[in-house]
Amino acid sequence: MKKLNVTITLEMSVPDDWALTETSEGTQVLALPHGQFLDLTVEPLFTDNPEAIWASTDDEGELHTVLDMVDSEEVNYAFVTP
């Protein structure tokens, strides 16, 4: 097997009432209103035609095959203030 490094950087405009929090393992997640939490992570999308619509798979085995290839993942969150 060969290694593939994928770096994903998102810049988002989010509501002022979103906040950062940590899980008991020290992983950062976003705290949303109404007791909800959000963690952004890789989600494999598939298609039969690269010019068509991309979607997640309904095949759990196919999804886990791709996710099992991930050796490590790092997500960092930071609010930018002017």
Please characterize this protein's 3D structure.
The protein is mainly β and 82 residues long. The chain has a domain of 50 residues. Helix content is 10%, strand content 15%. The protein contains 1 helix and 3 strands, in the order βββα. The protein has a 3-stranded antiparallel β-sheet, with no helix packed on it. β2 and β3 form a beta hairpin. It starts with 18 loop residues before the first strand and ends in a 15-residue tail after the last helix.
What is the topology?
Blueprint: E1 19-22, E2 28-32, E3 36-38, H1 60-67
Antiparallel strand pairs: 1-2, 2-3
Give the helix/strand class: mainly beta
Largest sheet: 3 strands, antiparallel
Question: What level of helicity do the residues show?
Answer: under 10%
Q: Low-confidence parts, pLDDT < 50 over ≥5 residues? A: none
Distance between the termini: 45 Å
Helical run tally: 1
Mean pLDDT value: 91
Number of strands: 3
Q: SSE order, as H and E?
A: EEEH
Radius of gyration: 16 Å
* Overall form: extended
Strand order of the largest sheet: 1-2-3
Fraction of residues in β-strands? 5-15%
